[in-house]
Records
---
Amino acid sequence: MDFIQFMYPGIIAMSVMGVAFFSTISTVWDREFGFLKEILVAPVSRTAIAIGKTLGATTIAVLQGLILLVIAPFIGLDLHLAMIPEIFSLMLLLSFAVAGMGLFIASLMKTTESFGLLMQVLVFPMFFLSGAFFPLTSVPSWMMALSRLNPLTYGVDAMRQIFLHNHISPEVSHRLILHPIYINVLFLVVFSAVLVSAAVIAFNKKN
Amino acid sequence: MNIIEVQNLTKRFGEVTAVNALSFNVQKGEIFGFLGPNGAGKSTTINILSTLLTPTTGKAYINSFNVLSERDKVRKSIGLVFQDPSLDDHLTSEENLRFHAKLYGVPKEEYKKRMEEVLRLVDLWDRRKDIVKKFSGGMKRRLEIARGLIHYPQVLFLDEPTIGLDPQTRAHFWEYILKLKEERAMTIFMTTHYMNEAEYCDRIGIIDYGKLVALDTPSNLKKKVGCDIIEMKSGDEERLKEELQARYQTKIKEKDHILQLEVQDGERFLPRLFNELTTKIDAIALRKPTLEDVFCALLVAPFGSSKHHRKSGCALAGECTDIKKALLKQNFYVFYSTYHYNLAARNYPLLAG
């Protein structure tokens, strides 16, 4: 099995997550620079604003993921055309979930500094506990428990299965893969539903 | 018709009561000035009226829509220019307007026409493709005004719109505002700290500690504070004093060799004075009470009160104290100072000779 083939889905998932999370900082910026006021006095619902912000961050994150996909064949990855829609949908779902989480946090933050701080505190553990760098099948149980709450784990797991399809035997796959893809997707759907709703509520309350 | 109705509006932030049982109405097509020292509750009131804050108690209506229960209708009826800039400065001026027009549901065909109209109004038509980041403070302000107008609001809220603008831009700004009032019968609700700007208002409400302390037209407010003063200087002081006393039957005050005469209608009185006086005068100045006097007289706290030193709201704090003292003594004109004399001389150079 090729190491890059194992690593690359993790890299895509990580950068998609990082960008989705970081892009929601625009809400805090808007608040700090006053532009948020202009939006808040407009005759549009707060829910539309919150969902719009989430979708904005999602768009940027997905574009970032697409750039990584374009690079992939050049560094020797085995990438079929059929894989692209699947990966694209997973990127969309993962970034929507993470952007929801980011907006939830951004709604509670008053300054860019506090948002940046909290983001650092959250992002690195999420990276390391996601299985992007090493398989999670042989980690201590406390680590496993934490990684089960991490949306990135499910994104990495699902993307990895698509990338490693046809590359590994079932025995190996058993040691690398955590859940079937549909479970991963289901978790991400539920996670984004909860976090985006929380973000909408926090945003409504705060403003 | 009342386009803004405020009834018993109160807003508390914890212990602090920012707005305290405020009630007033603003008529359609009126320029309403909302004055008061820093922290008096002006911006809080605007934020409540523009649905950004919810009042603790009380009601407010804009264009007969309730600001609490009919927010979207209120939001559609108003335009806002905030105290602090609120443009997206990564976008061009045209993009800022387009975004705003979309938010407010301006029809697409209509948008092009209006965009040109408002940009020409604020002299930014040539800069429509430029990124806002490169704009000067004055240009940003003008663009914000254009943006506040593009959805044809019924009421335009201006929260210290001319702060930080140079005198020229400020004059321009007022030209636009007066034009809007005339051409569109737009209602304008504004706050300002510049008293000469407050003169443009049809009516003025003065607020302090969240309470309305005065509400009237600028000229009525000034009348309440006192009448005009004519100041004269002459080589032959004694004779002039005697003549004035004999001719006009009033008491003449004297301070630093300047004679002061109180009259009702200064402008009309001056020519009469010139015709009738036989004593030679060297210099003459007319001083009328300004809104600054009104503002200070109404807002300075009584002596011994700790309120007195709280704010730097009044530029002429020293003189304000004098005004207050004078008012308390029912002897208004003792406060007359050289500062005002100079001011009068500047405003009426011909009279000052």
---
Amino acid sequence: MVRSDYLLETRNLRKSYGGVNAIANVDFKLEFGELRCLIGPNGAGKSTFFKMISGQIPPSAGTVYFDSNNITRSSRHQVSRMGIGIKNQVPDVFDNISVRENIWLAARFRHHEAKGAKIADNVLEQLSLTRLANSLVGELAHGQRQWVEFGMVMALQPQLVLLDEPAAGMTAEETNRTAQLILELNKTSAIVVVEHDMQFIRQIAKKVTVFHQGKILIEDTMQNVQANEMVRDVYLGKSGHA
Amino acid sequence: MFIQKFFETPPSQMPHRVWWTLVGLAVAIGLLIPRFTEIDVHLDLSIVFIFAILALSMGFLWGFVGMLSFGQTVFFGLGGYTYAVWSLNYNETTFGMILAIFIPVLAAAALGYFMIYGRISSIYFTVTTLVVTIVLEKAVRATSDERFKIGDVMLRGQNGISTVPDLQVPWNHHETLFLTGVYYLAFILMVLSYIGLRLLLTTHFGRVLVSIRENEHRAEMLGYDTRRYRLMAFVISGGLAGLAGGLYGVWGNFVAPEMMNLSSAASLVMYVIVGGKSTLIGPLVGTGIVQQATNWLGTAGLGQVNLILGGVMIIFVMVFPRGVLPSLGTAVTYLLQSRRHLSVQSDVVGKNAQREA
């Protein structure tokens, strides 16, 4: 066990594909309870980084610590058991079973029958999905399926939530609702959000990490990041305001 | 309405009252049949029940966990041979039947461990199980030599063992089950397996299995060690196939390598496909349909039974892609809805007519 004062910490994390570094020696630190946004242009390595800290792909080198535990080589279910909830970009749900069953399966993992059902009901309520509880997830609209997955992550009651483009493909209204949910969730969990919808980031961002060519370009508040010349050049384009 | 209720309760929930009523009715009919029929009917139906247990073991694994295993015939054969060898050696059958479940369970645990923990993909899982059943069949075929004995029992290669003892009543070794007795036993065990698996699906374990079928990646990200669950399911279905194998030995007093050959493995898939794998009742009904069709084609003197059967299967798969029973369920739901729709329409028409009048 290595001492780490952070909830999540990566040291020299690297991932290379055929000699090209998708992520090059990244040192990343996340405080307990923090809400952090990862942004960067396409190909900056955000998703690769996300998949490594969530245990979905193994890094080429370096280590990931979660709550002082080395989770670099942990399997997906171990990562989840330690208290990390993950939501990928594409809705990753159980299509042919009901909404309630989806959430219940998450809630039931840590809790007994009755408690699991209660948590599932609460989550359904919070997401305003109670009305749809008995529908099959596969029959729902894209945004609703995203929320079902969001609900599964909430039902896990994780210490850290990792969200990969949670607002992808959502309407403006759904995006607003998702932003609220994230802020709500942040009261109990630390959160890392990967996103490139700037409008959305502005709604939730506290501290922002900008990736560029597999490295961390800058880490600062949203305001400072937006004002930063370098960031404008690589990400927002020279014309400025996105 | 009845059939709708039967099909529409999701497997995760306790079956509806209607389900219990229908199952009870089927049990009553099944138990009464021997009183009104001749012995040849008992004999024919017993083997349907035995194959139905085997088909159930495959349908459960395929339809609810998403694992297509051709290896059910491996455990079927192992169960049959285990029963034969034990009961011939010790002249005792109760423990022989228990072993007929237990040995296949061990075999499934070992085989499943390497496949599932080795994380081979589903298509390789299917191919591997198919290869294992063929290899085992060839291996048993190659035991014609007198040297191949287990205890005092010669395996006799492709001739099989044709002196498999009848099943003794556990509390009285001098009394054995014969024909009609085997009918009752096979029927009751089939019903119990069916109800048991149906109830298993309502447990936390069963519900996780279904979630693995839906999206294994997500189930893992919820914290479930899916390999353990899949191995457990494989072992359960292996034990069930072993039970069917033991019963097969009792039924025909005969076990042979054919229990494990390609044709057995393939016809099992047919039972499940024809009945439909999305319900547990599907494989049972499918077994009945295909067995009856095979018998009928055999006696109709058309020759080329397999060819005709194959053609019929292809048509079946194209017309009822989800199997006979789910299609029937959909058809009934559709009919009910269109009738309701019609009555609503006629209501509206009636009201309009009144208004106009």
